[in-house]
Amino acid sequence: QVQLVESGGGSVQSGETLRLSCALSGRDFYTFAVAWFRQTPGKEREFVSAISWSLDKKYYTTFAKGRFTISRDDYANMAYLQMSRVQPEDTARYYCAAGARPEEGGGYFFDAEYDYWGQGTQVTVSS
Asked: Within its chain, how far is the Cα of 67 from the centroid?
């Protein structure tokens, strides 16, 4: 079992930088891939970014490339999503997720590949 707790969300102005944090715990959490998804009420969750357990591979969806940065620090039991130059369309609830082997399933982009989820943290961007 892996537990995840997100934090760092809030209300910010367009163009600012925000850093989301995900605290991980549980047995062998460091062997899991970690991903960030986001969701607006009434819509499906959409993939944002993912990082492999070995730290050598990172994945970003189109809107995140060049603006968002995913990272993890297993010694600190943390994963992060730094969001730069945020825009109003980035407004959503952001979730941290962990999966054992998404690379051997449907891939890092699919939420079904992640077994554990946090409760999310809200990000609201105003113009």
From this structure: 14
